[in-house]
Amino acid sequence: MKVTLPRGLRPRLVVAFLLVAALSALITAALTFRQARGTILDRTQNSAVRDLRLQVSSLAPNLPADPTDDDLRLFARQLDRAAGSRGWHTAVSRDGGPLVGTAGGVSAALRDATARNHSTAFYERVAHGDGPRLLIAMPVNYTDHGKGAARPSGLVVYADLSLDGERADISALIAAAWAGAVPALAFAVVPALFAARRVLRPARQLRSAAERITSGALDTRLDVVGKDELAALTVTFNTMAATLERDDAELRRMEANARRFAADVSHELRTPLAAMAAVTDALDQDARSSKLPVDTAEAVLLISDETRKLVGLVEDLVEISRFDAGAAMPHLDDVSLHTVIRKTLQLRGWREPEEVVTELPDDDLRIRIDARRIDVVLANLIGNALRHGAAPVTTRATSTQHSLVIEVTDRGPGIPDAVLPHVFDRFYKADTARTRSAGSGLGLAIARENVRLHRGTLTAANLPGGGAVFTITLPYAAPEEDW
Structure pTM? Predict the structure, then answer.
């Protein structure tokens, strides 16, 4: 069975609090039990030794100087009758001989101890099948009257008494300890929950504030209460939030300025570039008709080519500025999917099936789109596939009840993994050594924005067998429907 640990901080704090309380109660109970158990047993054995010594001192003088086994047996019976509530059983041994009496279970170690020392009483606690028992060994000494000295008699009295009463007291002590520990743990839940709530309240406030900042409310601040570590964390959070708000405002201002600058420059360049393009087109015709010297013709063609690139870059910048300003609006129309795709290929001069292979549904779908913008998207994706991948490029269209999916797949090496997350970034170049390229670096960004205008998505991925695939997903609407 797998045990699942609590994941939240609150249950962890409560569990930790209860574990500490349980450990404290257990240690306290164990120490108390150990001390009480030792006190009970020591008191019992000391009292039993004292009572046995009194009885031995009272009855031993009645023994003859050279007692027989019958005398020793009588002496043992007298001690047994004098046991009272102790209920001991005694036996007597003379000079290490056999035991005479009713006591049993006397160990050899106990007898050896009395053989080595005739002036001290010995005892040991043993466990028998019928319960714990206390064994006492007490040498009997004669006192010479008038000399005050004691001499060994050679007799040793052994007493065997039960400790069942003491065991019952110890068991009651254990039960009382458990009876006190369980309610203590139950009551410990209340302060544990209170402490967890007090500790976690600032943490919950910090989490809520962080969520508000994540949602864009950068002006979120928390009140600082107290002077502990959580208060210091709150101060740090407020400082972080203030820094984020200031940096965000600065970045937004810089971004707005940059977009405004790009838009202004692009619009200002369109007029002179239009005049330059008209002049270069005329010169381009002269250069190609051999009316100009070779060197001049090459320079004119170079200028004409670069002018067209500059015109394309400015047009792309103007288009991006429209998207940023929210001024780009789709002009929807009911068109044929087959017509849109084939017109895109014809306008660019792409041949089928040498350069592009189309896989279209047998039924000519009628879709409601901005045909010009979708044409820009397809032209960009197919052109990139031919330029960076390998021909033929496959353009596949499928439809479901709710969406239209167009895939543009090439047979090239695919997009490097490090480049894939950035293919739609503006001006991103996979190869930093390529300072100039045929495109503006805005084509895929413009394509994605055009797809977004149609409430669709444009994604890029690599095929398992090689090659890149760009997927356009457009929500399908019947011709009579509009957005």
Answer: 0.49
